[in-house]
């Protein structure tokens, strides 16, 4: 950062303060005399949302045309890091053409509850899957010279009261569930920026949390970009800067800069801290600097639309296909009835800051008619506003009567899920459920196509439909992708990145959602998603990782090789064979269990995966590496990741609930010494090598020390903290109890 430091030295205090606060809504300040240009940041997890000049100050009403790719809910279901890299590269090309330096995305927050209104912007309920998908997206974007802004850091898992709610969550839960996706992206993809969230974490705003922004992010993970605030997340610009925030957005009309200047002059803020933040900004912007608009080549929107179509098909999850109803023969006899307003008025993206002005939009009805020679009739069946319409319902029933197959398009209306608010339930609108019940009475040959950002309850659908295809929010080419899948021009290749429950009351955060009095308790701790359902042995509608194909696969010859049992590392190899008659993709999933542990652990956890595409009869040997983290948990007692010695299970299969192959391995690991405290129990002192010596020394001459060796008394006193025992006079006769602080220092020295 030598060059950046030299630039910083030439800047005045006022100029430096101006650089750490936005100059407007979407750009940073410039200092022309020092050669510091403005930098443009804009929204866009699944498209570039560049505000037109002169539109509303939030930029929500109008933006430049851009490709609307499938949202993260769909992309996470692809389980394909390479595919996400392609999307990132395409986004970068469009961003470059619009003069955008930093694209605000991706979102990697965990899907703690399916009610979160912004779940369509997040990848998964599992941190490994979310982290790998995000790393691919970031790597693709930044390979073409556009910076990513990974968000929202951290524990931002609801929209209700999101600006101020305090997520009350213990460190182990943070470390194992809510932080690993961010950590993976930082370590593997070196993102330009991290965006801090609005909320508080255990009472401290994320924007001014030094443990989060400095100790963890920079000192532990090695993050070398800059931290930008979510828009309006800064409450105290001086405290934020001191804690590790580098850029406040949007601009505050100079108020924050003036506050920072005043704090430096009053000796309340070290100018070195300001200099460091400015140097980080300059260094990062130099790394991802773009040509201005007009200097970058125009995007090939047709090619990007074709990519969006392919991606949407790769992300779709086939949940049911009784009797191999799908794929349909495009040239067979028999009429096809297409029902549901979504077939001609597609729901393809979410609402809020990620809403894209698409370059074009494909609807499924037009696409279906284009790929089949069969007669296709259409009836909307229901109103999108949820108002009952008996005439529309009657038309749908008549259209279904006598049809060879009925394609029913259902989903969540746009006003049901968005940034800014959470959902109240997981039900589809009543008018849609009534339609499918009425249609089923006249024709049971039904395939349902779903469009939704968050999971919905599927019980009413699986009870009526022979096939169920989850398209999520598939982007502007979702209509054509749907037709490709329905007629077999593409094969469903997605797998669920979140569990589909039977009932809202089954979900892990249900009783703690969304909190009250400014706090939300993460009482379920580690147990979100499949971790909760496995621990509680709860039945689910569709498990995490599940998805059907138009072919079948078999697993065989599992091998788990441990090169050195004293190191927590292993190589998993398994043979996967396409046993069906069509080409298809399978997602090989590896889960690890630790059946005997000093702490409670999930039944099993996803620790590796690989997507493989096979032709009929083809086999592939799939290898997946497991590193130390695959076997570790965060130990609050040790303040570090710990992998215990003993037996582990390695489970392989196509979903979290379908793991046909298992192999047990044994690791001869050395546990780190457990530091003793005043609250450590007698049993913990006796289990500690130095602690045991100290106990024996201080009680060697005590007439009442038989409890140390007496098996009958040990269970009574073993769980009593040593400090308590000493305070009760359990020390050598005639001596004052030794200082517990002295004993602790002696034991841990």
Protein described:
The protein has 749 residues and is α/β, with parallel strands linked by helices. Helix content is 30%, strand content 18%. It is built from 23 helices and 26 strands. The chain has a six-stranded mixed beta sheet, with helices on both faces. Helix 2 (13-19) packs across helix 10 and helix 2 crosses helix 11 (271-288). The protein is globular, with a radius of gyration of 29 Å. The two termini are 39 Å apart. The model has no long low-confidence stretch (mean pLDDT 93).
The averaged pLDDT comes out at 93
Give a quick account of the main beta sheet: strands, pairing sense, barrel closure: 6 strands, mixed
Shape: globular
Strand content: 15-25%
Distance between the termini: 39 Å
How many DSSP-defined strands?
26
In spatial order, strands of the major sheet run 10-16-15-14-11-13
Annotation field: number of helices: 23
Backbone structural class = alpha/beta
The whole-angstrom Rg is 29 Å
- Proportion in helices: 25-40%
Uncertain runs: none
């Amino acid at each position: 950062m030598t060059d950046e430091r030299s630039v910083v030295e030439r800047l005045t205090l006022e100029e430096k303060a101006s650089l750490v606060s936005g100059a407007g809504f979407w750009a940073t300040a410039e200092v022309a005399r020092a050669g510091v240009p403005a930098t443009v940041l804009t929204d866009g997890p699944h498209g570039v949302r560049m505000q037109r000049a002169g539109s509303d100050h939030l930029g929500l009403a109008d933006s430049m045309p851009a490709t609307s790719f499938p949202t993260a809910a769909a992309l996470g279901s692809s389980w394909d890091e390479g595919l996400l890299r392609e999307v990132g590269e395409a986004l970068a090309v469009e961003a470059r053409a619009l003069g955008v330096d930093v694209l605000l995305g991706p979102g990697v927050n965990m899907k703690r509850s399916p009610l979160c209104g912004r779940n369509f912007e997040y990848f998964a309920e599992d941190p490994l899957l979310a982290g790998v998908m995000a790393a691919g997206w970031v790597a693709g974007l930044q390979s073409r010279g556009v910076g990513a802004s990974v968000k929202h850091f951290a524990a931002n898992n609801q929209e209700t009261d999101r600006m101020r709610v305090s997520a009350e969550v213990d460190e182990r839960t943070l470390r194992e569930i809510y932080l690993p996706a961010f950590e993976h992206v930082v370590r593997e993809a070196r993102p330009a920026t991290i965006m801090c969230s609005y909320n508080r974490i255990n009472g401290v705003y994320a924007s001014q949390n030094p443990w989060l922004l400095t100790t963890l992010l920079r000192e532990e993970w090695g993050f070398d970009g800059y931290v930008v605030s979510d828009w309006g997340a800064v409450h105290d610009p001086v405290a934020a800067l001191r804690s590790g925030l580098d850029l406040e957005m949007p601009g505050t009309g100079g108020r924050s800069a003036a506050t920072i200047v005043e704090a430096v002059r009053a000796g309340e803020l070290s100018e070195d801290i300001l200099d460091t933040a400015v140097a980080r900004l300059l260094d990062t912007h130099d790394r991802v600097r773009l040509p201005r608009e007009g200097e970058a080549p125009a995007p090939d929107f047709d090619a990007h639309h074709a990519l969006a179509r392919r991606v949407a098909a790769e992300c779709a999850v086939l949940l049911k296909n009784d009797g191999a109803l799908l794929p349909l023969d495009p040239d067979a006899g028999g009429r096809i009835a297409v029902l549901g307003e979504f077939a001609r008025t597609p729901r393809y993206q979410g609402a809020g800051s990620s809403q894209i002005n698409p370059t074009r939009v494909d609807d499924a009805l037009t696409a279906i008619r284009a790929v089949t020679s069969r007669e296709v009739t259409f009836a909307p069946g229901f109103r999108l506003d949820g108002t009952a319409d008996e005439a529309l319902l009657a038309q749908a029933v008549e259209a279904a009567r006598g049809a060879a197959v009925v394609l029913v398009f259902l989903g969540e209306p746009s006003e049901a899920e968005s940034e800014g608010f959470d959902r109240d339930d997981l039900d589809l609108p009543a008018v849609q459920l009534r339609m499918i019940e009425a249609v089923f009475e006249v024709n049971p040959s039904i395939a349902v196509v779903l469009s939704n950002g968050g999971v919905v309850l599927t019980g009413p659908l699986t009870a009526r439909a022979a096939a169920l295809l989850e398209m999520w929010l598939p982007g502007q080419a979702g209509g054509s992708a749907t037709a490709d899948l329905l007629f077999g021009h593409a094969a469903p290749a997605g797998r669920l990145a979140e569990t589909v429950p039977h009932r809202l009351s089954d979900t892990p955060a249900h009783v703690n959602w969304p909190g009250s009095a400014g706090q939300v308790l993460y009482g379920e701790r580690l147990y979100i998603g499949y971790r909760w359902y496995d621990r509680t042995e709860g039945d689910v509608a569709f498990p995490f990782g599940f998805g059907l194909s138009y072919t079948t696969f078999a697993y065989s010859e599992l091998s788990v090789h441990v090169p050195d049992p004293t190191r927590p590392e292993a190589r998993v190899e398994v043979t996967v064979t396409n046993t069906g008659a069509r080409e298809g993709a399978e997602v090989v999933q590896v889960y690890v269990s630790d059946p005997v542990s000093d702490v409670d652990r999930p039944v099993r956890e996803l620790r590796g995966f690989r997507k493989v595409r096979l032709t009929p009869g083809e086999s592939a040997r799939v290898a997946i590496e497991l590193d130390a983290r695959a076997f570790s948990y965060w130990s609050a007692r040790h303040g570090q990741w710990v992998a215990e010695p003993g037996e582990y299970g390695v489970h392989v299969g196509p979903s979290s609930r379908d793991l046909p192959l298992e192999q047990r391995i044994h690791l001869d690991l050395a546990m780190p010494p457990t530091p003793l405290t005043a609250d450590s129990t007698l049993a913990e002192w006796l289990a500690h090598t130095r602690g045991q010596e100290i106990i024996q020394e201080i009680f060697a001459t005590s007439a009442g020390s038989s409890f140390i060796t007496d098996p009958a008394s040990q269970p009574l006193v073993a769980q009593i903290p040593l400090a308590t025992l000493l305070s009760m006079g359990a020390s050598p006769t005639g001596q004052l109890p030794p200082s517990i602080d002295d004993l602790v220092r002696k034991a841990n020295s």
